[in-house]
Amino acid sequence: MSLLKKILMLALFFSSSLSFAQFLPNNSSLTVQSVQRWMDSNRDFTSVIQILDEMHKTEDDLKKFDALPAAEQDQKITAFLQQKKLLDSSNAIAIRHGWKSVGEYMRLSTKLGNAIAAYFFTEETAKLSAEHTQALRAKTDPAILAAPQEDIAFVKNNEKLLKEYIQAYAKGR
Fold it and tell me: Which domain holds residue 120?
């Protein structure tokens, strides 16, 4: 093989591996595809999530972390996983399941969890008086109350898929 062909092959290899992330699906919004990816990867991430829970000592720490831009969250997650010697295995799980980062998986998990909680909140408050609704609203996490309407609608429209997953997960499938 000529030197020029070798150089072209190397250039093609590096350009394709560097651009891999741009071809990954959008995992920042709730779609059937992103939620299916989340469901498929959830069990593999279980041990990683348990370790990451140690990052936040208090609820206030978690709220401050959630308020950070995605890039800063990813940096903190990377540093923490590196310290715990889990970065390579965590990144391997993320890549295998089509996530750009562990943080991206975490952000979609939070988004989905808030949407599910907001859906149930909406369903419950529809049955309550205005006074009881106000009392329940006062006790509800602001992140749940701030869930976008399109996310709540997604949960409503895909309730069967989500319910089947939760039931299967609870049975250990």
Answer: 28-170
